[in-house]
C-alpha cells in the first residue's frame, strides 16, 4: 500500500514540475518552440577549456620528464613517457571534437555563464523536443542605453528580452484590438515610428 502511495506521489510531483515554469529558463512560459535560453560571454581562445589546462599539463610533463632533477629517468622510461604524452594529446583532441559534436560542451569549454543580458554576447538556445537542435546564437542590440532592445534570432524567429519579466519573448503582434481600432488606424506617420516598428517586428521576410 505504501509503495502505491509513493508511486502516486512521485507521478503527481513530476506532473506538477512540468506545469510550473522554470524561472532559470529565461524564456516566456508557454513558448512552443524554445525550452531554455542560457546567456554566455565568449572567453579568449587561450582560456578555452581545451587550451589553457592542457598547456599547463604539457609544461608539467616537460618539467617532470625533461627538466626536473630526476629527468635522467626519461632515457630509462621512454615508453611510459611517450604513452602519457599521447594520452594527453588524445584527450585534448577528443575535447576539441566534442565541441563540434555538442553545443553544450562548446559552451562549457569556450564561454563563461552570464546572468545579465547586457554583459552577454551569445546565447545557447535549447528547443522543445522534436523541434530541432540546440544552437549558440549571437545577441543583438538595437539602440543604446535603456531604450535599446536586446534580442536573438532562433530558427528565423525573433525573441526580445523583456526586462520587466526577465525572459525572452517571441514577437507578439497586436491582434487583440477592437475592430474599430483597425478601421481608424492611420498607419505610421513618421519615419522614426516606421523604423521603430521595423526594428521590433523585423522585415516580414
In total, how many beta strands?
A: 8
Determine the strand fraction and express it as a percent band: 15-25%
The number of helical elements comes to: 7
Task: Note the overall shape.
Answer: elongated
Q: Which class of secondary structure composition applies to the elements?
A: alpha+beta
Overall average residue pLDDT: 79
Strand order of the largest sheet: 2-1-3-4
Number of domains: 2
Unreliable runs, pLDDT <50, ≥5 residues? 1-20
Q: How can the largest sheet be summarized?
A: 4 strands, antiparallel
Compute the gyration radius: what is it? 26 Å
SSE ordering = HEHHHHEEEEEEEHH
Amount of helix:
40-55%
Oligomer: single chain
Cα distance spanning the termini: 60 Å
Outline:
42% of the residues lie in helices and 20% in strands. It is of the alpha+beta class.
Structure description:
The model is unreliable at 1-20 (pLDDT under 50). The chain is built from seven helices and eight strands. It has a four-stranded antiparallel β-sheet. A four-stranded antiparallel β-sheet has the order 5-6-7-8, covered by helices on one side. It has two domains: 21-44 and 104-201, no CATH class; 46-102. It is an alpha+beta fold. Strand 6 (149-154) and strand 7 form a beta hairpin.
Amino acid at each position: 500500500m505504501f509503495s502505491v502511495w509513493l508511486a502516486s506521489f512521485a507521478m503527481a510531483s513530476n506532473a506538477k514540475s512540468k506545469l510550473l515554469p522554470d524561472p532559470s529558463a529565461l524564456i516566456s512560459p508557454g513558448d512552443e518552440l524554445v525550452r531554455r535560453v542560457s546567456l554566455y560571454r565568449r572567453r579568449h581562445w587561450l582560456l578555452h577549456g581545451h587550451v589553457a589546462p592542457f598547456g599547463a599539463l604539457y609544461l608539467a610533463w616537460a618539467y617532470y620528464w625533461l627538466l626536473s632533477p630526476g629527468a635522467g629517468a626519461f632515457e630509462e622510461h621512454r615508453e611510459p613517457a611517450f604513452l602519457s604524452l599521447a594520452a594527453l594529446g588524445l584527450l585534448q583532441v577528443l575535447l576539441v571534437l566534442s565541441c563540434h559534436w555538442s553545443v553544450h560542451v562548446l559552451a562549457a569549454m569556450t564561454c563563461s555563464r552570464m546572468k545579465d543580458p547586457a554583459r552577454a554576447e551569445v546565447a545557447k538556445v535549447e528547443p522543445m523536443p522534436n523541434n530541432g537542435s540546440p544552437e549558440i546564437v549571437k545577441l543583438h542590440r538595437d539602440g543604446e542605453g535603456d531604450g535599446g532592445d536586446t534580442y536573438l534570432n532562433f530558427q528565423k524567429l525573433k525573441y526580445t528580452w523583456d526586462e520587466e519579466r526577465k525572459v525572452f519573448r517571441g514577437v507578439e503582434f497586436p491582434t487583440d484590438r477592437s475592430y474599430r481600432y483597425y478601421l481608424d488606424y492611420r498607419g505610421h506617420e513618421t519615419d522614426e515610428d516606421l523604423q521603430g516598428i521595423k526594428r521590433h517586428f523585423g522585415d516580414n521576410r
